[in-house]
Amino acid sequence: xxxxxxxxxxxxxxxxxxxxxxxxxxxxxxxxxxxxxxxxxxxxxxxxxxxxxxxxxxxxxxxxxxxxxxxxxxxxxxxxxxxxxxxxxxxxxxxxxxxxxxxxxxxxxxxxxxxxxxxxxxxxxxxxxxxxxxxxxxxxxxxxxxxxxxxxxxxxxxxxxxxxxxxxxxxxxxxxxxxxxxxxxxxxxxxxxxxxxxxxxxxxxxxxxxxxxxxxxxxxxxxxxxxxxxxxxxxxxxxxxxxxxxxxxxxxxxxxxxxxxxxxxxxxxxxxxxxxxxxxxxxxxxxxxxxxxxxxxxxxxxxxxxxxxxxxxxxxxxxxx
Amino acid sequence: xxxxxxxxxxxxxxxxxxxxxxxxxxxxxxxxxxxxxxxxxxxxxxxxxxxxxxxxxxxxxxxxxxxxxxxxxxxxxxxxxxxxxxxxxxxxxxxxxxxxxxxxxxxxxxxxxxxxxxxxxxxxxxxxxxxxxxxxxxxxxxxxxxxxxxxxxxxxxxxxxxxxxxxxxxxxxxxxxxxxxxxxxxxxxxxxxxxxxxxxxxxxxxxxxxxxxxxxxxxxxxxxx
Lengths: 321, 225
Prior knowledge:
Radius of gyration of chain B: 17 Å
Strand content of chain B: 25-35%
Helix content of chain A: 55-70%
Number of strands of chain A: 4
Strand content of chain A: 5-15%
Number of domains of chain A: 2
CATH architecture of the largest domain in chain B: 3-Layer(aba) Sandwich
Shape of chain A: elongated
Number of helices of chain B: 7
Oligomer: heterodimer
Largest sheet of chain B: 6 strands, mixed
Helix content of chain B: 25-40%
């Protein structure tokens, strides 16, 4: 503790513990004070916050969309069954025998045999083309064996199974239908890359916006900075409020972006559900996960802080008493 | 042991003009001295060398036994905390109260709020401004503003007090009041160096006198009446 005495008579002495406590208190004080300062000029602050929020929301929304598409496509993969079309004029019994044999193949979970007659009946019921079908001299549809690969089967296992099925003499065509999945995955990977590029550019924009805002703030407080340095304020002390300002810009901007994403999700999820129902799916649009929201917020704070550092590093050293 | 020692100090600004040349002098601990000379003689530069607002081109400056030439810039804030400085234009901040202005040196040194409040009141009391804590410095007269500046300079209980034209804008009566204030700090052990061109005041007060003329230092010891 400081010793008592008349002004100037004693040296200043402070213990390490007091110093640490004061340091912590000072950080708290500066954090709160900086936020108050931002809120005391709401118009300028809100503009900066909105710019940050929008810059974050764009890649955030795209990422959310992509995440949903990826989840959707992984469901397709899990339920991807193989349609094995038999040669026309394959006898019903031969078809049944083949399907029994396929049941014993590796990576096969189940087999459904649909005879040509059955297929015709279903088609007649489902398509409404019954009258037209009656005009045909014979059943144009082949028998089909629907093979359900086991859930543990990987993509390569399913492909190998497809080749094996193709070699069967009664088989006309194997519809594995992984090609469109491959294309979808390639498309998703491309979109992800585009989001990264766009996201990086917008992140840079955030750093520049925060940096510029803090440059103006430094210019407004030149006197204070000079006097603080005159009476023994360290560079860290002088930097601190500006770094906190960057953190606040990032944090509030991130929160606003999260709110925008939630609002967007609420607006879109209803129509998406309706659309999914039209396709006979129970699919629901997934909101941003808690983890992703934290990454968004943490990333925003980091960007704000980096912008502040960049500005402080460039401008603060020029102000000397 | 001396509080301040200059050894062959010279300062040349970019452009080749010598602001100070070959300055050597000592200030003993607890001494009270004036630094005089025409304007532009280098008084401010000499004071700035002691708080490392400027670094000398030649020679060595010691403050409290410490060689300032060896001091890294990261150590400069800690040096400034041990030296109180009063400026002609007082360098007060008009966006905060008198209390906050005076408290600034304590705040940057990491003092607890209670101790800060106690010391700020003591410092304001010592310059006769107790009760002015909540006022804004812009409402105060020139003399009062200067006294706030002095309170801020002494609030950290420095061993060395430097003043650059502290009475520059004040009438003779107020000037004498301010000078008496500095004398009172010297009486409790502070080393005081005051740069001023107010010759009549100096002659009345006596004390040691360092005279700068075109960057060179002369000394004359005067004895008060």
